[in-house]
Amino acid sequence: MTDDPAPGAAARVDARSQLARAQGRISMRPETARLITANELKKGDVLGAARFAGVQAAKAAHAYLPIAESTLVAGVTVALDVGDNFVDVRASVESSHGPASTPAICAATVALLTVYDMCKSVDRTMVIGPVLLVN
Questions:
Q1: pTM of the full predicted structure?
Q2: Could you read off the pLDDT of 53-105 as tens digits, one per residue?
Q3: Domain ranges across the chain
Q4: Is the distance from CB of 118 to CB of 42 less than 8 angstroms?
């Protein structure tokens, strides 16, 4: 085998690397979703802060769970979509070593918690969930 095989030839595969995706939703009043979309909340850019928080959470997932295996995170993507009365989050985590599922779930959950934290002054009716591993 070579490091750069021809198409269809046998190739080395790093079985340790993984890709995991998680998604979740936070439901809210329509006015809250409108404020997020218009970037009119006092705390600032909700979607940007949630995206950043999700990426940071994926990298530090092992710190939140006492028996979680440490994961070398190779890449994280956190995307948020605002609907009429909700925000959906999709998180993808690629690991170069170790399981990617826990960091993906952490990324989605912390992104949703950030949305909650930044909007709680205008909406105490928000509900987080479900959050689930997609693959």
A1: 0.85
A2: 999 999 988 888 777 777 888 899 999 999 999 999 999 999 988 888 899 99
A3: 18-133
A4: no
Whole-number Å distance between alpha carbons of 4 and 98: 25
Q: Which two tokens stand for residue 42?
A: 């006092």
The topology under which CATH files domain 18-133 is: Alpha-Beta Plaits (3.30.70)
Virtual torsion, Cα 88, 79, 104, 15, nearest 10 deg: 130
Strand order in the sheet with 86-97: 72-82, 86-97, 18-27, 127-133
Structure tokens at 45: 């850019």
Q: Alpha-carbon distance 4 to 26, whole Å?
A: 45
Q: Would residue 117 show up in a list of annotated catalytic residues for this protein?
A: yes
Out of 14, 81, 117, 123, the active site residue is: 117
Q: Which of 98, 50, 51, 39 is nearest to 74 (CA)?
A: 98
